[in-house]
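Researcher: Please predict.
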Amino acid sequence: MFLCCWLALVAVIPVTLSTNPGVKVKLTAKGLEYGRQLGMASIQKKLKTIKVPDISGTQEVSHIGKVQYSLTNMQIVEVGLPKSALDLVPGTGVRLSIGNAFIRLHGNWRVKYLRIIKDSGSFDLSVNDLTITTSLAITSDETGHPAVSTVNCAATVGSASIKFHGGASWLYNLFKNFIDKAIRNALQKQICPLVADAVSDLNPQLKTLNVVAKVDQFAEIEYSMVSSPTVSTSSIESGLKGEFYNIGKHQEPPFSPTAFSLPPQTNNMLYIGLSAFTANSAAFVYNKAGVLSLYITDDMIPQGSPIRLNTRTFGAFIPQIAKRFPGLMMKLLVKTVENPVITFEPNNATVQATCTVTAYAIQPNATLSPLFVLNLEASVSAKLFVSGMRLAGAVTLNKMDLTLRTSYVGEFQVRVLDNVFQMVLKVVVIPQLNVELAKGYPLPTLGEMKLVNTQLQVLKDYMLIGTDVQFSG
């Protein structure tokens, strides 16, 4: 896999109308160096496929006359690319330079002179001081995936030397300069097309980029570009939309991303900044899908807990419940009534949720009798981490506040239920939420890409993932 596998992460699909990105991706010089190493292996493999056509002709040799010659069965036996560099051209793109390269060939020779004398043997050819310079362009194809191509390419062969084995090889010393030139020209014509082929061969791999990544049955996240990549002398940075949508229905949330800037860090190959907008768009999507709700029954409460979801337990706090609904089990419905709000501050990610809690008594015929409805304001702290190629999390309760919204059993003091609902949140709601958060959501990825040496920081209004990358396959 080549450098373009990296560049796909910063040149995804055509620019959209949004102003600020929800996600930023920065490829550093360290990442480019890794891409260069991968790229050299790809180009070296391609250059080994050079086909040198047979060469034949007639040459006038003093004292002998016309000599008919042919060079056949020429095969590449070695390609060396000892020196290469990958340079970022600010405001332009990427330039790949290869210098001091060499190609070794082996083939057969044959001559005929003085009309009747024939001779043959083998030869070895060394092509040295080979230089290749090419610029790369990244666009998008009709499916919205990145496509890479060469903008321009120049290849020169500085020198070639040929050594003949067997027969009257001395003859070739008389006209080897002519043969050297013919072979150099034959090689030079093929190098740039083969480099272009090596780059084009990457396009099927680039189609693996998750431009739209499915999260689960409810949501997907879009990683489309909102601005052209910014190329500096040390990095390539691009802004991606980074927005969650309901599957099959792309509705914009009632808020927009705010601008943020990645810090000038270069220790890792790749940096991914995910803004609070991205997290809040997820909250908007799941709330709109109606999945931020949970029915709680007594079998979800730990067996050892003295607090049970029945009218006897709640009757101890609200006597009229035990009087009107004696001996019945209960059910709670916790449901968000507004979009949860996620905020990022240095080393702290917080979620504020506004919910209702509706308590029901379960009648013998399974019908539900409403008892009361509470307003629940809860604040949780989130620990975020990278798991594989996904961003995951876990939350813990900071505080909660209960107020009475509606009562069907008369007036009562809500604060007497604080401990009950603290327990319900801690042992039922939050563990259930953490199961879902542990599944995570996909980061922008490409093919067999793995993140290594990954660190995550929560900063003002965004989180920063710094990572090295490995490609396999």
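Model: The mean pLDDT is 87.
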